[in-house]
Amino acid sequence: MEDIQAVKRVKTFILPDKCFENRVACAWRRGNKFSIYPRSQIPNKTTSESDNKTADKILVFNQEILLFTPILRKLVNEANGTFLSLKKVTETSKNTENQVEYLKLSRQYRSIIRVCIENLQEAGEKEEDAVARNNLLSYLTIFYSIECIWHLCEILYIDIIPGDIVLPFLLEWVRFHFPHHEQSAVQLLESCERGSEDNPDYWDTVVGMVVQGRVDVARALLKLHSAVDTNEFKLVDNSLRSMPVYSVYSGISTGEFTISWKHWQAECRSKLSSRLLAHQPQLELIMRIMTGDYSAFESIRGKYSSWFDVLGGWVMFTTPWARRRELGAAAAACAGLAVGGGGHLDVMVRAALEGDLYLVIHEIQQMADNGWFATHLTDVLLQCGKLHILDKHQTDVTSRLRDSLVLEYGSLLLEHQSLWPVGLSYLASVPDGARRAELMLERIPIRTEGKALRVVAEAKKYGLLGVAQSVCSCMSARALSRGAAGAALAWGARARSAAQCARAAHRALRAYCAGGALPAADLLLTAGATLLVDDTLLLLGKYCDFHRLYKSREFKKAAKLLVSLITSNIAPDYFWATLLLDALPLLETEEPVLSAADSYELMLCLELRAACLARPQAELLRLALARNLARTALHDVQHD
Amino acid sequence: MPLNVQGTFVSQKINKIRWIPEEYVETKNFFTGSWDDDVNSIKVWSFESLNEDQDVEIPRQLSEYKVEGDVTQIKFTDKKTIAASVSNGDVKMLEVSVYDKQTPLREVHTWKKLHNFGAETCSCTSLDTLEGDIASIGEDGNVNILNGRRGDVSQAIKGADSCSLHSVCFIKLNEVITGNIRGHMKIWDIRSSTNKPAAAFLLAGDELAATCIVHHPTQPHIILAGSESGALAVWDLRMNQFPTSLLNAHAAGITEMQFHPENPNKLITSSVSGEVWDWSMETLTKKAQEDCVPLEDKTAMNVNTLMPVLHKAVNTLHCDRGRILCGADNEAVYLLKNYKY
Amino acid sequence: MISVLNTIDTGHEDMIHDAELDYYGLRLATCSSDNSVKIYDIKSGTQTLAADLKGHFGPVWQVAWAHPKFGNLLASCSYDRKVIIWKELGEWSKLYEYTGHESSVNAVAWAPAEYGLILACCSSDGSISILTYNQDGSTWDVKKVPGAHAIGVNSVSWCPAISADLSLDPLTNKDAPKRLVTGGCDNLIKIWKEQGDQWIEEKRLDMHMDWVRDVAWAPSLGLQRSMIASCSQDKRVVIWSSDDNISWTPTILNTFDDVVWSVSWSLTGNILAVSGGDNKVSLWRENADGQWLCISEVAKGLGQTTNDERSTL
């Protein structure tokens, strides 16, 4: 592309084969699959290729879908269950408070992600192939980010926070996703040696614990220092111990808390300015952190992998009373600590803290997880009523955004050999999904009746009756092309399609005329009301019954049925000969079974349809009818 | 202890699930057969406890035997051998090692393309076993009786049905009952040389498929059939033709039924609508002995839901004392523990 | 990430003019200047030649699969002025041959299956033919629209059975009039409507400045909106949209470097593939603001360099 800047999202796939040098075109398959073939527009016989066989190739393209790897299929299936449960919650109680339920389901999603991460870790440890292991590791990175962002969004938008004071939750989030310092703290405390400062990680760990708000742990670690009894250590320990911690349940108002906290921090500041800690630079650093000194945070930033690692600490030592919606400034301050940065995760965390969920979702879409994350998170946030996205014309496009994500994700799954019912359940939950589901569901390759029955059952479940009918019709056509009249009729009847039933019935009648046995007698004799779907089918069914009666020597009934078939005039032209000639043996029975009136009727039909019969056959029938008329003239047949 | 349900996702839709019996101990091993995927297989699994937590048992895959098509049925011919039907028309007899379940399944016999439309493939839709004999059925409408010891076809009823057959059950050694896509049930005397059923009747008037058939373990003249509609029909073969009861049961097709091996008054059923139920059969079988009791509502029966309703079909179940295994279309297997029978 | 799933060596002795996948995407039909039509079975990873259909005596321009509820039917049209409908009954054989055109038949298209088995054909003789299968007599009725486009008709496409007639409920309007769109050498696009037993010109869309090479009516997604894509030798691709199938608004999708030969919609109508003389296939999609963006392209090149970036395609 020349204009690479304008369309930077265009991905180019280079065709390897020479045959595409002069011409190329595309043929679509189901979903987003397609083939590329060398299409020639002009019948140019003078090209160099025309003298012998061409090397023309057709390439079938396929998108490799991360989610379709076996480990991630578990995630797909399990999340589908949660998605559908969430849908049920929103449907059953539209206006009441469902926050508790939403929180439960959000946590369920997170535990699904956790299981997925553990599975990926386990598989990564077992995997011997380096490329495959690298792939697994890259999936892991993706899912770590997903877990981290989901958790943060849950805290900021879904969780029920007493008094809306977010700090304890924020600290929990930091501790959960950055457990590195906590792990080394545990090691240090376990070995419990005086003089632990010799451990190169000692101070980083202490500072890390302070920054994560683990004051008790930090104090315990300080006790392992060989100089713990000095005044400096006692001073810092005292400050840490006396730090006021806000709790909704303590009965103190936020105002009172703010006053006592500010007082405590002022004390810390005065201790710092009194230069009491000048000889213990590490303790001084801790004290500076406690006073919310930006330069102190700047100095430790390099030891952390990301700026939001220190976010909890920053909020804790600057605005511990911050509410959920008041984290923008803290995010800006912490992000400002970073030198470069700006990966997806950085942008997402910052956007989430600043309340820009649209940006969060936009960034999520750039992650290579095939829409799993964006779809489910958007859905949860929307159902909680926490997502309000306006487009540039200030119209609310929230549900449109959610619907389009669900639509794309569902379509993707619907293409999969096994996951199609999962995909269908997503498409069925958005307004525009039905038609798309219809188009895709109809085209699912069906190899067995078992599959056909399931596709039909799924289609009916969502009211896609057109699909159910189309699938049954196709099964009928397929059976017919195999010559299986019974199966063709059974599926035609399922489709309630007069056209399919007629096709199958005509085939059966023609096969019989050509000398074959009458097929599908077991079906026709038990079909009942199904026969009414089509006239030709009705004829076939009744004709089959005629055979049954004749075989069981119930001649009178057989004769009556035959006459009704002939006089009803529903037989196709090619079947008249058979029908008329079937009267012959009934005219020759010892006891007459056809009445005088029947004979008249048959004579009339014979004369109207004489062209169907060969001359000698017609003569024979005329004679038999005349004889029957003669013998029934005096003693007519008594029908029971 | 209350009924406990544990699900494990296995990345395959499970069509059949079977406990592998053990001589003296409670078994931990089971078979699964998958369907509707690019590659399908019969797998052997074992439940393993997670290190400290004795209550949580996770299935671990021990071996995999790939087949070319959907696994449509698995039945035992003896304690270590199964007969499996496949949607490419094959029937296979496979043996699992008694000593080491990790060793791959051994192929005892294979009937390749036993069911077929000439060159086109045709699904072998189900089979049943009795004392080493196998009765297989297919979309071709044929019934084949296979000798599991010799590995040959001892009897074939060609064109037993003009439609596809979907369920089959041995009533006694020389008698099988088949059900087709329209719910047309036929009883076949295997010894007879005519291709005519000994008896035939309809499951219901709705022309929907008979998806599974079982007979009562202690009263073999009582036959139950599950319908694609979710209805359950009961026949007393001593008075043919009309079901003694037709129960509107599940919301969608019944996929499998099993009488509890230890208590014949308990029937367990699974369905396309994602339900697993247990039924107290006392009333039903008693009534069958009295007189014809038509069209009954399931509320009159003693029916319990054993598991939260799944969003996808439950295709199969198998019970062993207080433990029930289920396999489902959400690519998961479920273990129900502490079932009271 | 897009990758090549498999490669099919066609074995055609001359250039290929069209390739179409069947309803399920399991079979591929191709046609070529070597007068033949070939059918391949393509299952994942393997492909086999299922049939080699010989019956035309000139280059075969286009093939089209019918809906499988009518059985396995394939229509082909050729420079030899013939349209052949092939049917598979165990083996592939000729079901019907239509010889009513006086010049090369350029394109064929089956009507939506809801209407029955109906085929539209268009020819360099400037006319369109509509062939309708009559079940009772196993015959084909022919309706011809002469002088549809001066010099010749290049392309034809049907309006989906479910479409944007405001006056009708979009999900049940099976009685909506049948419509089709054609593109021709008179630089025009015309929309035709069946009225009684006549096909009448309902609308002409005048925008292109050279021969219209291809037109494609987008699959309906149940929205109250119809879309038609057209491409021309004037190097432009135009998207026409309408709320009522009567008044149409054009949007120029893009002006390319070379003649654009073909446009085709993906199954669900959300992606348009454009291919032309610049030896590229580009895939386009409409964003929420109604802008058309190129999301992917497939181009000729030397040596294998696949792009590692995960595409959103």
Automatic annotation (TrEMBL), chain A:
Xref: Pfam families: Nucleopor_Nup85
Quaternary structure (record): Component of the nuclear pore complex (NPC).
Subcellular location: Nucleus, Nuclear pore complex
Primary role: Functions as a component of the nuclear pore complex (NPC).
UniProt keyword annotations, A-Z: Membrane, mRNA transport, Nuclear pore complex, Nucleus, Protein transport, Translocation, Transport
Family: Belongs to the nucleoporin Nup85 family.
Top-level lineage group: Eukaryota
Predominant subcellular localization, coarse grouping: nucleus
Name this protein carries in UniProt: Nuclear pore complex protein Nup85
Automatic annotation (TrEMBL), chain B:
GO cellular component: a single term: nuclear pore outer ring
Gene3D superfamilies: YVTN repeat-like/Quinoprotein amine dehydrogenase
Coiled coil: none
Compartments, record wording: Nucleus
Record-linked InterPro entries: WD40/YVTN_repeat-like_dom_sf, WD40_repeat_dom_sf, WD40_rpt
Annotated keywords: Nucleus, Repeat, WD repeat
SMART domains recorded: WD40
SUPFAM superfamilies assigned: WD40 repeat-like (SSF50978)
Protein name: Nucleoporin Nup43
Species of the source: Bicyclus anynana
Lineage of origin: Eukaryota, Metazoa, Ecdysozoa, Arthropoda, Hexapoda
UniProtKB/TrEMBL annotation, chain C:
Cellular localization per UniProt: Lysosome; Nucleus, Nuclear pore complex
Annotated Gene3D superfamilies: YVTN repeat-like/Quinoprotein amine dehydrogenase (2.130.10.10)
Keyword Acetylation: no
InterPro entries: Sec13/Seh1_fam, WD40/YVTN_repeat-like_dom_sf, WD40_repeat_dom_sf, WD40_rpt
Pfam families, per the entry: WD40
UniProt xrefs under PROSITE patterns: WD_REPEATS_2 (PS50082)
Gene Ontology cellular component list: COPII vesicle coat; lysosome; nuclear pore outer ring
WD repeat copies, ranges: 9-50, 53-87, 205-241, 253-284
Keyword Transmembrane helix: no
UniProt keywords, alphabetically: Lysosome, mRNA transport, Nuclear pore complex, Nucleus, Protein transport, Repeat, Translocation, Transport, WD repeat
GO molecular function terms noted in the UniProt entry: structural molecule activity
A Gene Ontology BP annotation from the UniProt entry: positive regulation of TOR signaling
Family of this protein: Belongs to the WD repeat SEC13 family.
Name of the molecule in the record: Protein SEC13 homolog
Organism: Bicyclus anynana (Squinting bush brown butterfly)
Organism taxonomic ancestry: Eukaryota, Metazoa, Ecdysozoa, Arthropoda, Hexapoda
Gene giving rise to this polypeptide: LOC112044339
